[in-house]
């Protein structure tokens, strides 16, 4: 209990110290979310019909396969690869390189853009049905994915900033402590992303099966 309490206190101090950075990342993500939602209005009728048919097919497929083991394993593996290995791993490495840290910002924006586009398209095309699908099949795992990526991105950017100031002689603060904090935050982000993959694998297909008849 003492160790857990001390760890919680350290995390609170860390996030409070880096609050402006995390607020900026949240604002960047929300900006991407807004641009993604607005981008749905630029689709041509043919693109809109094709995308609607594709999404309907995906959800019908999820609903049809919700009781099968093999598709679930594939979904879990793909989710872990996309979010933990490709996204979080890339963010961590970009932070360590220092010079590549600015590329973390476009990643956050694009993640917001994709989510905003998906939800915006569903809401425009299906209204109530789209809201149902968004809240049951898209939001549950993203409630874990989004905080995980923001936490990891903040840690990577913080390390890059500390390392840069140290290298330029503007700060005598050691980077080893910051590296340990960044590694720990990346680990926590990875755990959240694995939990999100489990939600997407085992909960989303059930909800998609229940709502597969709403999107036509």
Question: Assembly type of the shown chains?
Answer: single chain
Question: Mind summarizing the main beta sheet?
Answer: none
The number of distinct β-strands equals 0
Q: How do the SSEs run, as a string of H and E?
A: HHHHHHHH
Number of helices: 8
Mean of residue pLDDT values: 82
| First and last CA, distance | 52 Å
Helix content: over 70%
Contiguous runs where pLDDT drops below 50 for at least 5 residues: none
Tell me the β content. under 5%
Backbone shape: elongated
Structural class: mainly alpha
The tally of domains stands at 1
**Gyration radius over CA:** 20 Å
Topology:
Layout: H1 2-17, H2 19-39, H3 45-64, H4 69-97, H5 104-126, H6 128-167, H7 175-202, H8 204-211
Give an overview in words.
It is a single chain. It is built from eight helices and no strands. With 216 residues, the chain is mostly helical. The protein has one domain (37-211).
Keywords:
216 residues, mainly alpha, 0% strand, elongated
Short description:
The chain has helices at about 1-15, 20-40, 45-65, 70-95, 105-125, 130-165, 175-200, 205-210.
């Amino acid at each position: 209990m003492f160790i857990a309490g001390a760890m919680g206190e350290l995390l609170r101090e860390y996030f409070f110290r880096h609050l402006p950075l995390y607020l900026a990342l949240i604002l960047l993500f929300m900006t991407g979310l807004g641009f993604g939602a607005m981008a749905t209005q630029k689709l041509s009728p043919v693109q809109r019909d094709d995308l609607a048919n594709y999404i309907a097919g995906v959800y019908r497929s999820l609903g049809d396969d919700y009781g099968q083991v093999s598709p679930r394993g594939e979904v879990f593996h793909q989710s872990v690869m996309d979010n933990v290995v490709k996204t979080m791993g890339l963010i961590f490495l970009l932070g360590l390189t220092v010079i590549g840290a600015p590329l973390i910002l476009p990643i956050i924006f694009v993640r917001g853009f994709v989510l905003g586009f998906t939800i915006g398209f569903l809401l425009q095309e299906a209204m109530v049905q789209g809201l149902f699908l968004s809240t049951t099949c898209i939001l549950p795992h993203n409630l874990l994915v989004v905080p995980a990526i923001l936490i990891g991105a903040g840690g990577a950017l913080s390390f890059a900033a500390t390392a840069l100031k140290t290298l330029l002689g503007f700060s005598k603060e050691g980077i080893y402590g910051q590296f340990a904090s960044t590694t720990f935050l990346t680990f926590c982000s990875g755990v959240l992303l694995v939990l999100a993959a489990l939600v997407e694998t085992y909960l989303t297909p059930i909800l998609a099966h229940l709502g597969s008849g709403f999107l036509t």
